[in-house]
């Protein structure tokens, strides 16, 4: 039996890492908590980057997850601007700033890194949107661009396009799928999203691949589509997803197939746990391993991992939750709307621009989605949590 | 206990309603409605959970 921990190291100082530190204290842990953050900034919230920060409604400081005095209150040693570079599972040390830092329990919460467009590294005018520095740079470039081309119409690309239109910036949104966020929310809701963006004069290039991002050797000059169409622009946002930030764990012996592989209690190896975007864990309710890159999961999984590190955790089996704000429309979903094979509106109506829809796989409800219907959606969450039969959900 | 909600941060997720339904509700737009800014001590754990679950960190709890 491993003795109770005295030293806990958390690698990652963002939503998951900081929530874990808070939760450890709330759960009564009074030993050392060290939090390592690669970015120079105190931990901040990322969802507003494509919304309030990009729009200019909020200053960067409003994104900070914890007020500064809270770090002292919690008694956590937060080391910012310093990245962990290696893990020795057997020796129970993590390499930070060239020194080995010992731990009794380790939490890996290093998140994800945005995918870049191959060959555009160092090219001016090509942006990603993951950090506050990314967002500030992109906002400045977008405001002086005659048109912004957004590559990728997932959550991030679609939200950024909506925010830019709110600023009056002309936007072209390119995606190989037939409609925005189709992979995440299915064709019915994606079609409504396409309509929403079209109403706001987004130049939609759907079903379109990108052949090349073109440049003059220094600065981007345009985006060439697969059919040969040339989109002239000085500002490109690449929003084509992200990959788990696990390069520092190469050679550690951990399973790094699509994130840090964990058991049902978020444990990756003896005394090593993971939470947030970087963690792929065995979801017992789903009977499979999943990795969830959503804000609420960072919090919930960090709380579960904190309990598990203290030897008190049960299996982590959340009902995933995600939301997106585009123009005046709030879209929220519980469960798994991706990959469903059934879809039905159960209340409201798409024509009225307020509805709740259920998603099914086989005979079961696996997800619910609300379009401008937060209260109704919260009630419908029970359909997913209970995994009710499709016919009962649709008949109700 | 003194609870405040920074309503312009609220993203309408409803986590607070699930964690502490006697203290929080939502309006039609999903924004949090504080039913009881000074709830009984027995609800303190629920309220702390709501504050920590809030994906927008919109809930502030003072002892």
From TrEMBL, chain B:
The keyword Mitochondrion does not apply. Ferredoxins are iron-sulfur proteins that transfer electrons in a wide variety of metabolic reactions. Gene3D superfamilies: 3.30.70.20. InterPro entries: 3Fe4S_ferredoxin (IPR001080), 4Fe4S_Fe-S-bd (IPR017896), Fe-S_cluster_ET (IPR051269). This is Ferredoxin. Keywords: 3Fe-4S, Electron transport, Iron, Iron-sulfur, Metal-binding, Transport. The keyword Secreted does not apply. Its cofactor is [3Fe-4S] cluster. It comes from Jiangella rhizosphaerae. Pfam families: Fer4_15 (PF13459). Residues 1-29 form the 4Fe-4S ferredoxin-type domain. GO terms for molecular function: 3 iron, 4 sulfur cluster binding; electron transfer activity; iron ion binding. It comes from the Bacteria.
């Amino acid at each position: 039996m491993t003795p109770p921990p005295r030293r806990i190291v958390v690698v990652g100082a963002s939503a998951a890492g900081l929530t874990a530190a808070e939760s450890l204290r709330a759960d009564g842990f009074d030993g050392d908590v060290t939090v390592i953050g690669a970015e120079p900034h105190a931990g901040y919230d990322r969802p507003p980057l494509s919304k309030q920060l990009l729009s200019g409604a909020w200053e960067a400081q409003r994104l900070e997850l914890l007020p500064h005095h809270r770090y002292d209150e919690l008694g956590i040693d937060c080391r910012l601007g310093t990245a962990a570079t290696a893990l020795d599972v057997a020796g129970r040390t993590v390499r930070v700033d060239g020194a080995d830092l010992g731990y009794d329990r380790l939490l890996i919460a290093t998140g994800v890194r945005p995918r870049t467009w191959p060959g555009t590294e160092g090219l001016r005018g090509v942006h990603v949107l993951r950090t506050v520095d990314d967002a500030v740079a992109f906002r400045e470039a977008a405001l002086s661009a005659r048109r912004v081309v957004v590559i990728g119409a997932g959550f991030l690309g679609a939200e950024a396009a909506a925010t830019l239109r709110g600023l009056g910036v002309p936007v072209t949104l390119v995606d190989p799928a037939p409609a925005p966020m189709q992979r995440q929310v299915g064709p019915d809701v994606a079609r409504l999203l396409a309509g929403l963006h079209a109403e706001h004069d987004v130049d939609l290039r759907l079903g379109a691949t990108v052949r090349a991002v073109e440049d003059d050797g220094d600065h981007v000059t345009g985006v060439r589509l697969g059919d040969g169409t040339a989109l002239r622009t000085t500002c490109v946002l690449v929003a084509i997803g992200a990959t788990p930030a696990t390069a520092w764990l190469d050679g550690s012996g951990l399973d790094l197939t699509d994130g840090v592989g964990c058991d049902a209690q978020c444990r990756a190896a003896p005394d090593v746990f993971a939470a947030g975007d970087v963690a792929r864990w065995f979801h017992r309710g789903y009977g499979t391993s999943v990795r969830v890159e959503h804000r609420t999961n960072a919090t919930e999984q960090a709380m579960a991992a904190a309990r598990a590190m203290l030897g008190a955790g049960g299996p982590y089996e959340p009902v995933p939750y995600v939301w997106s704000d585009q123009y005046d429309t709030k879209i929220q979903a519980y469960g798994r709307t991706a990959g469903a094979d059934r879809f039905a509106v159960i209340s409201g109506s798409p024509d009225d621009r307020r509805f709740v829809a259920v998603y099914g796989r086989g005979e079961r409800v696996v997800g619910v989605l609300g379009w401008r219907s937060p209260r109704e959606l919260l009630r419908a969450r029970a359909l997913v949590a209970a995994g009710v039969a499709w016919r009962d959900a649709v008949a109700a | 206990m003194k609870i405040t909600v920074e309503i312009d941060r609220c993203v309408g997720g409803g986590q607070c309603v699930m964690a502490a339904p006697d203290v929080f509700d939502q309006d039609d737009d999903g924004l949090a409605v504080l039913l009881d800014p000074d709830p009984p001590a027995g609800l303190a754990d629920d309220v702390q959970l709501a504050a920590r679950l809030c994906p927008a960190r919109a809930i502030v709890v003072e002892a």
